[in-house]
Amino acid sequence: MFCPVHPKPHLTVGLFYCSKTKLASVFAEIKFPLSVAKEALGWRLIRVFKGSRSNPAGITQSLTVRWGFFVRGVYLYLSMRYTRYPMFMLILTSFVRLTAQNDTLPKDSIDPYKLNYSILPVAYYLPETSLGFGVGGIVTFRFRSERPDSRPSQFQVGASYTLMDQVLLYFPYRFFWNQSRYLTYGELGYYKYVYFFYGLGGGTPNSNEEVYDVTFPRIRNSFLYEFFPDTYLGGRFWYDDFNITEVDSNGLLVDGDIPGSRGGAAGGIGLVVNHDSRNDQFYPSKGMYLEGVVLPHTRFFGSDFSFIKMSLDVSRYYGLNERQVLAFNFYGESNIGNVPFYQMALLGGNKRLRGLYEGRYRENNCLILQGEYRWNFYKRFGMALFYSVGNTFYDFNTLQLDYTKHTYGGGLRFRISRREKVNLRLDVGLSPYGSANYYFTFGEAF
Q: Both 70 and 138 in a single domain?
């Protein structure tokens, strides 16, 4: 990184990998002092970066230029085993990213109301999607009416389009306002994509794997009020309208015997309680997070299925010292009634039982325990080790301990926001039930 005492240009190279798109980002970054930037780029470009309270002139002390490209095939063999399709090494696109920051400012003087954002362009190729392009980003901020030390609001944006007319659009968000007395969070999205299905229960074999095409809009929102310190109560509305357009002719969904195999809407309105005593929203080292939900789905709420979804999500954090944290998570979900398969309790994904494809195991109920060791070992760089166990079952009478699954792994972290402690997360999840899974995203798993 650029140091004001020794203002010399500095070159950094890096590599990131994303399991969902099976692509890698290779980049080279050079940081140089303002005097060099003036001669090379001129004052007009330097001053387009808006000033803040701590830097009203809007003049930066250093400039960073990042150039990178995406390539396929970094984990070519694992990709072939995972999707059962041949993969090809392709250089797909390149990008230039220009950022500016004032490296001479101490951390405590950073404007708490400044808009912080990171944007990552992506491109990928898969036989089932053809060539695809997209972009993802995260934005953190505070409304001007909030205290400087209040919880930050944040949202993420993701968009992807393929040449086979497949679309992914999603907008997860979390907003605090009116002195943090009000909280709303959820997700808006539109999906036209392909997913894997393996059947129901904890004993389904890998040979069950089939692919189905689906299109659905998503509206998920929780609106809460702080009735007690750090404790919010309110309502939740969820709505997914699944339109399954194609299934495997030799698969499990084609006969229509599995609930939801013909598609249909799932809409519910219910109650939610949220307790959050964490000392940080993005990288806590102490405190607890708890969310409890009771969400009935009925035709009155626009649902084609009648069932009740109940869930409890609890995380606890223990700081070992300034750089090391132990984090634990419990998640339990129970669905009672006529539940479509795409609303059942799931194992897998980038948050719960990393190392399994999301939805690899699904049923009416699930119980999950996770533990993670986190270590910020050098400036913006960190690492993590994790272990998870979980089980899915129809009801407690059919719960089989032999179907308990476990996953483990580790990952690297890079802090993209010093004040808010937002990390880029690269995890590798392993399990005895299939090949490795890789996750590249913003923020911690829990």
A: no
